[in-house]
Amino acid sequence: MGDRWDSDQALIIEETNPDQAKVILTSMLKNVDNSMYRFFQLNSEGKVPWGTNELLGIAEGGVGLALNKYYEENTPQDVKDKMAEVIKKVTDGEITVKTVF
User: Fold this and answer.
1) How far is 43 from 39, CA to CA, in rounded Å?
2) Residues 52 and 74: beta-carbon distance below 8 Å
3) Alpha-carbon torsion (58, 60, 66, 67), positive or negative
4) Residue 3 — pLDDT band, cuts 50, 70, 90?
């Protein structure tokens, strides 16, 4: 079945269970595709930081929030505005998200 977590849960079940999908307003995303693309790009440039760890957060596109049609249709505009503001502040480095690593 593949990963059913760290993905847009509403879109995964939208065809098989539309009633449930429409009440899942958002999901947290782990953007493995972006991580892999970054690796291959760095590898082709000979810049892979071998033997080190990288933290890929919101700013790097490593994680994110599913802003799908259910989010857009059901989330009040003031909440969407606040979420956009917070995401921008994290991306710009104005807010630092603590990590255990």
Assistant:
1) 6
2) no
3) positive
4) low
Q: Where are the alpha helices (DSSP H) in 1-101?
A: 9-13, 18-21, 32-44, 69-74, 77-91
For the four alpha carbons of 41, 98, 69 and 4, in that order, the dihedral sign comes to positive
Cβ atoms of 8 and 29 closer than 8 Å: yes
**7 residue type, one letter:** S
d(CA 57, CA 51): 19
What are 53-95's pLDDT values in tens digits? 888 888 888 899 999 999 999 999 999 999 999 999 999 999 9
Contact residues for 11 (Cβ-Cβ < 8 A; gap 6+) = 21, 66, 68
Contact 48, 39 (CB under 8 A): yes
Whole-angstrom Cα distance, residue 21 to residue 9?
Answer: 7
pTM over 0.70: yes
